[in-house]
Design brief:
Number of strands: 0
Helix content: over 70%
Radius of gyration: 23 Å
Length: about 180
């Protein structure tokens, strides 16, 4: 029995350590992306005041930094995806527990079931869009497609939150009514 608690504690700690590492990586990548963007802008501004030959060199350097910036944004998108997938799975577990606990109202559960199905559908579409994005040949196209995937994934998370709120509302309504 004590071994089960230790294992459970390890899994929880491991999960939060992984999430913390992802958050740190996300923060670091965001800082690097912002630095790339600012440096490219500074170089472009400097290019305005220099000779044509120097201007071409600086513009080419800025273009390389801008490509690196977009590549870094793709890396950020992939880190965000890992966090979103983890959150989606955690929310799914919470929803399943709440549904089992408060499944008395069949009409309400039907609405919740529809929300759950919609969130699953949107997450599946988001993952498919992300796979298609990774197949793109240009960095800009890949980033654009990943941005669309992020939008679908966030919609799925928002629908999960909606279903959790609906279940919690259902759970608290009888309690509130009984106070009167």
């Amino acid at each position: 029995d004590n071994n089960v608690e230790t294992k459970s504690s390890f899994v929880t700690t491991s999960h939060y350590n992984e999430e913390e590492l992802l958050m740190n990586s996300l923060q670091e990548a965001s800082t690097q992306a912002e630095n790339l963007k600012l440096t490219a802008e500074q170089i472009r501004n400097t290019a305005i005041t220099v000779s044509p030959q120097q201007k071409n060199i600086l513009i080419n350097e800025a273009i390389i930094l801008e490509r690196d910036y977009v590549a870094k944004k793709i890396e950020i998108s992939n880190l965000k995806a890992k966090l979103v997938y983890q959150k989606f799975e955690r929310n799914k577990s919470i929803i399943n527990e709440l549904v089992l606990k408060y499944q008395d109202d069949k009409t309400q559960m039907n609405d919740i079931s529809k929300l759950i199905s919609e969130s699953e559908r949107l997450m599946k579409i988001g993952k498919e869009m992300r796979e298609e994005a990774n197949a793109q040949t240009t960095v800009a196209a890949k980033y654009g497609a990943m941005s669309n995937a992020e939008e679908k994934e966030l919609m799925a998370i928002n629908i999960q939150h909606e279903s959790i709120q609906l279940i919690e509302k259902q759970a608290t309504t009888p309690v509130l009514a009984s106070k009167f």
